[in-house]
Specification:
heterodimer, A: alpha/beta, TIM Barrel, 8 strands, 22% strand, globular, B: alpha/beta, six-stranded mixed sheet, five-stranded mixed sheet, 45% helix
Chain lengths: 238, 743
Amino acid sequence: MQGRINQLLSFSTFDGPGTRAVVFMQGCPVGCLFCHNPETWDAAGGTLITLDDLMRRLERFRSFLSRPALTITGGEPLLQFDFVMALCAAARHEGWHVALDTSACATPEKVLAAAAAVDLMMCSLKPEADATRLCKACGKPMQRSIAALRDQPTPVRLRYVLIPGFTDDDAVLRSLGDFARTFPNLESVELEPFNSLAREKWEALGMQSPLFDSPLPELHEEAIQRARELVGVDLCTH
Amino acid sequence: MQHNGVAWRGFNGTLWKKRVEVADFIRENYTPYYDGDAFLAKTTERTAALWAACEDLMRQERAKGGVLDIDTKRVAGITAWPPGYIAKELEVIVGLQTDQPLKRMVNPWGGWRMVEAACEAYGATPDPAMAKIFTRYRRTQNEAIFRNYTPAMRQARKLGLITGLPDAYGRGRLIGDYRRVPLYGTARLMQDKEDDLQRMDNVDEFAIHTREDIADQIRALERMAQLGLAYGCDISRPAETAQEAVQWLYLAYLCAVKEQNGAAMSFGHNSAFLDIYITRDMAEGRLDEAGAQELIDQLTIKLRLVRHLRTPEYEQLFAGDPTWVTESLGGMGEDGRPLVTKTDFRWLQTLRNLGPSPEPNLTVLWSPRLPRGFRQFCSEMAIESSALQFENDGLMRPIFGDDYGISCCVSATRIGYDMQFFGARVNLAKALLLALNGGRDEFTGEPVVDVPELSGDYLEWESVWANFEKVLEWLATLYSRTMNCIHYMHDKFNYERVQMAMINSVPNRNMAFGVAGLSVVADSLAAVRYARVRPVRNASGLAERFEVVGEYPAYGNDDDRADGLAVRVVRTFQDLLSRQPIYRRANATLSVLTITSNVVYGSKTGATPDGREAGKPFAPGANPMHGRERNGVVAAMRSVAKLPYDICRDGISYTFSITPRALGDGEASRRANLISLIDGYFGAGGHHMNVNVYGREMLIDAMDHPEKYPNLTIRVSGYAVRFNRLSREQQQEVIERTIFERM
């Protein structure tokens, strides 16, 4: 069985709890304007790798991590559903803690099946009203799929990118908190302040995004703290 | 036996009393410590005042362009100066290299030209009488070596193929077992050397040479005792208290740095030894924790003041005025007990009490079996100071036993048993370019070695490797002969009688060869083998640059195709070196280490097939090339760990830099994650790791506003350096290195 990956990162503290290996799957239909990995969008890009090879390479990182933990992200990992399901099963069989970082841009059936196959679901949430402004794909079905996760036993972490002037509206942040509270299996809400470090990638690919074309106002620590309070400090990680 | 009843009161064991055997004394008497850092004391007021005075002097030193003062009248030597003090009433541990702190010595034994150039660089003129002696009557090491160099050696040196050679200054790298002085006193050590001298019959050249050495050592021990008396310390007898133990130990070391200006003058592995004296004094009610810490703080202050007079060219190779007063901490005992004592913590505590500093070069001999509290404290201090290096005790202990120390950066040495001939390094990337240019220098076109010209538009793997092997074979011969010449003359004209007086009379000798540019070569070979490389040749047929068509696997991504080539290169070269006849029956060892010379070696090397442009720096040590580690830090570590330590027994240097946030979210997780990474790396067979935890923004800010970061210390390649002592070019290179982070 083969999958298309963009990168296998051996050590990260940014993609879920603890230290983790990260597989970046190739291909994403969502097209978020704030994306930091636009090179993963093209479903025909990346490199083909067999499941066995991937597992073999992954195992070599195990002893460096505080515990064996893997995050599957992308791209949109659910685009290569069968491969990702097989990877989850193989990794968990070997004792890896597996997190799936997804936009939930897939049928609710697939999202639910994925949730059952991992230890942690990490879902990138966009404000409903602005989803069309921020992404190529429509936000509503994604949010529906995410909402369906609240009846599942798998813990859910909601990831939300704070973009000044785009996603930091008071009411939107409050409703994010309200939405999150409806999850009995909520692990946390992760607010990620937007930064423009991916500008070079966008330029290199000859792609345009209003978020990278011109500098956005800087997000100060107070603004981030305020956003945390609007969402609910008890829900937020760190 | 002498009257050692007072000095040795309460000490256990018998073997170490009968013969000089410090490790046995330690095993019989030390107290392992298993807890955390809570017991540690802050620096005393007295020591804080002393350190403030030193910091002021160091500020003046920097303001004067790096050298505060030079004594141009006297020749460096053990008793050349009357006692010197910083502020006598504040000093618990005394002794300076000259009569004033930071005043530098003129050390002409290595070479007179070096003295002249260094004096001139700092606006001083050496004494004419001294000049006359060392140019007319006394041959120096430098003069003797250059008279002996063959044209091929001179050419290889000039082109930057064999570089950083200790042919104009002390070779360093020796660690005297300075502990022998406090434990036994110089009188006993002299008696032992006299006995050795009597036992050695002068029947052949080897024996005559050894006898001459021992006679020199005995003279050194006499002088050392005289120096002690000048400072009011009778070091002919053993130390009786902890204060005396520290003082005697330091005086023994001080004699070495008074007489030798070796590049690395390392200190050893002293904590468990000193801890025995401290523990005894505490039990006797003579010392409390504040007093114990003060001893280590004051010793550290003295070690931070060690200086040598260097030329600006030397600074290019070893930037930031390093002295490599390397002190090894921790490690596991062969009996299964950790060699960690409270005094290992006290050494680390100096980084807080006195602030981070490159010297002494604190080196943790790391094992997963070290006590948890110590591992955590080491991790915490590494993150806080970026001043620590870690080396794999599990790799070294089976080879060297448990009483070894790191010399310089990565070079393990059995204390009191081994000595080594520092061999600097060859520029492997340049060697590869010789292979690609028919044996001609890539810049000048002058013929250097006889290998066939390569034909065809694209480089063809088989013929490239065949040529490269030929170049390496030629280079190994030339390199080892050059080393033989250097060390023969060094022994003859610049012998380290002080350090050797504290090493066994017939030591094990290693010829410590080295290589630079390994990752450039591995990637270049990978490009030739797995992509297509077209040399763009100029009118005279020299490859000016290389076009790479397609992608190649780069060293640093846990990809065996590229990593295997790096391994193949070191194996091939070490195999060739070990076949060479070596001076004084030394063993050939190999290091993958560059210090800061990766910048200057790069500047002397043309464009390489990996895509590196002409003149650009190499990666330091065994590091993958900047920015080519596409799979993150663990994959990079996995690659470096594949370099076999049994082939590179002089050490494999890896410098790891990461931003605080990328290491973990919060202090506790950073601490734990660093421990996991070091354990992982060493578990995979890695040998050495410099740990830097900082962000690129801070370095850029420090480059533009040095006054804001007077004490910013970073680890470069096997040593730490104050960032503001690097040249702009070197600072730029450090900034361009891979600092693992994530957007």
